[in-house]
Amino acid sequence: MSFGRMEARRDSLSTCASRSVIVSGRAMFTYGWARRLAGLLASGLLCVSASSGLVAQEYASDATVGIESKLGETIPLDLTFNEEDGDSVTLRSLVKRPTVFVLVYFRCPGICSPLMHEVAATVDKMKLTPGIDYDLITVSFDARETPQLARMAKENLLGEMKRKVPPDAWRFLTGDETNIAKLADAFGYRFKRDKEDFAHPATVMFVSKDGKIVRYLPGLNILPKHMEMAIQDAAEGRARSFMQKIQRLCYAYDPEGKTYIVKVNRIILAVSLVTLSLFIGYLFAFGKKKSDPNSNLETTTEEETGIADGD
User: Fold this and answer.
1) Which of 128, 131, 199, 202 could lock onto 169 through a cystine, CB 3.0 to 4.6 A?
2) What contacts 24+ positions apart, CB below 8 Å, involve 81-88?
3) Which architecture, in CATH terms, is 65-238?
4) Which distant-in-sequence residues (6+ apart) come within 8 Å of 159 by Cβ?
């Protein structure tokens, strides 16, 4: 088992000229377990060794650029956009399961391309399957961009991925200013035109199949485990596996920092309960063995048999 070191991460917020810094704690771990009890105890001990990280966000001095959290609110699913082939489509027809939203513009000379490649790289590393466990939707917030440009961006990105993502599992949409503004406002996604480019944040957003906003993950360095947990949070009513339950025990979502943080108090409590249970079980088994009359009877019989044989 391994635990990645905590490190600072940098997130750009730009017209592609100016930047702001987001610092976040990272924790990456892998699990190896043979029994449920051993897995719980080992995972708890690993999580205790991690320090919790909070995201300190310093957006640009322009308050019109950044993220205003809208957790728990619902995006308007009747908004209409254009698919890569030019067909008009509503979000309601696309959001059928947990969905990952990424707002960018395809001509962006700065952080949009690194953000999209980071999402693609994270999808490559996750165990969850796009098109089955979740979908992805990339929306251009530049109303001047066309479906043809969206198609080219999609072909280039999906063509570079290791995992074969079904075209219907990751849509690239364009739209008019009205629908773009309504969607961005629903997410609390604030961007601003700067000449021919835009100042905007780099954030991935997660919604449930009903369009409810459940998570934000900011930055250009997305941990696969964090993205998996965000998708699991968006999957309302889905039964979690045993290891997913352990992850929920170890981590909790921090809505202010927009990241997952280690809950040390939960881990200490869990490890204490497991240790206490093992100790009580040992005492019970040891005490039962000492008080078992059949054990003494068998010992006495063996001694008597030995004496008789000696005679």
Assistant:
1) 131
2) 81/139, 81/173, 81/174, 81/175, 81/179, 82/147, 82/150, 82/173, 82/174, 82/175, 83/147, 83/150, 83/171, 83/172, 83/173, 84/147, 84/150, 84/151, 84/154, 84/171, 84/172, 85/147, 85/151, 86/147
3) 3-Layer(aba) Sandwich (3.40)
4) none
For the chain, the structural domain boundaries read 65-238
- Residue 221: partners with Cβ closer than 8 Å, 6 or more residues away: 9, 11, 24, 26, 118
Say what angle helices 242-250 and 36-48 make with each other, to 10 degrees: 20
Task: Give the pLDDT confidence score for residue 10 in this predicted structure.
Answer: 38
Tell me the two tokens of residue 310: 């000696």
The pLDDT score that the predictor gives to residue 39 is 45
Percent of the chain with pLDDT over 90: 52
**Mean pLDDT across the stretch 255-278?**
59
Asked which of 82-96, 200-214, 230-244, 257-271 is least confident by mean pLDDT, the reply is: 257-271
**Residue-level pLDDT at 118:** 96
Q: How far from chain centre, in Å, is Cα 117?
A: 17
Residue 268 phi/psi, 5° resolution? -60, -45
Amino acid (one-letter) located at 51: S
Lowest mean per-residue pLDDT among 44-53, 184-193, 281-290? 44-53
Confidence band, pLDDT 50/70/90 cuts, at residue 64: confident
Q: Pairing between strand 22-23 and 189-190?
A: unpaired
Q: CA-CA-CA-CA torsion for 111, 112, 118, 124, nearest 10 degrees?
A: -170
Reported as half-sphere exposure (CB side, CA atoms, 13 A), residue 39 has a value of: 15
Tell me what percent of the chain is helix, strand and coil, each rounded to the nearest 5: 40, 20, 40
- Residue 140 and residue 180: Cα distance in Å, rounded? 8
DSSP for residue 311: -
pTM above 0.70, yes or no: no
Query: How far is Cα 88 from Cα 86, in angstroms, rounded to an integer?
Result: 6
